[in-house]
Design a protein that fits this description.
heterodimer, A: mainly beta, seven-stranded mixed beta sheet, four-stranded antiparallel beta sheet, 0% helix, B: mainly beta
Chain lengths: 113, 127
Amino acid sequence: DIVMTQSPDSLAVSLGERATINCKSSQSVLYSSNSKNNLAWFQQKPGQPPKLLIYWASTRESGVPDRFSGSGSGTDFTLTISSLQAEDVAVYYCQQYYSTPQTFGQGTKLEIK
Amino acid sequence: EVQLVESGGGLVEPGGSLRLSCAASGFTFSVTWMSWVRQAPGKGLEWVGRMKSNPSGATADYGAPVKGRFTISRDDSKNTLYLQMNSLKVEDTAVYYCTTIAPWEISQPAGLLTYFWGQGTLVTVSS
C-alpha cells in the first residue's frame, strides 16, 4: 500500500497570511501514460463531508477559489493557501488515487492564529 | 445537482450485520463508478471499497480491514448503491460516506478519485 504522510499535523496561521501543508507518498504516484500525478487534496469542515479541492496535484476543481494551489511531483506535494480566510478553517487531507487501495494522509488541522 | 443520500446507519452489536444504502440523483448513475469511505469519530478518512459500473464489469475492490466481511452492490434501476456489512467489529464504528468516482479521464489508471460525497450515515458497533 502507498503510505501518505502529511506535515504538520496542525497549523495556526494569521488571517491574510500564507498556509502551507505538505504531503509525502511512500512511492511515486506519477502515471507515466499521461504524465499526471494522481494526488488530490480535500477540505473537510466540521460536521461536513470532505470536498475535493485539487486533483492531478495542481488542478483546481471547478468553483474552488484561486487562493488554493497545489504543487509537486512524484512523491512530494504541497497545498498552499495564499491568503488565509476565516472560512478556510478545516482539516485538509491529501489522497493518492494511483493504485488500490486508495489512501489518505492523516490530515492537517488548520486554524486561525 | 448531484445528490447522494446515505441511510441505514444505526447501533448494532459486535458480530451483527447492517446494510447501508446510498440514493443517487442528478447524474447518470448507471455509468458512474462509486465508492464508500469511512471516518471513525475524531479520526481520518479510510477507503472501504469501490464498485465499477455495469458497463465496466460491475466488480468491486475492498480495503484490507473489511475484505471478506463487507460487500458493495448496486441497483441501477433504483439509482442506489449498497454496502452490506457482516461480522461487524467495534472498530467498524464510523461515519460511512458514499462517493462518486471522478470521470475516467481524471481518475485513470485505477478509477479511485472520490468526487462528490454524501453527508454520511453513522454506524455504531457496541454491546
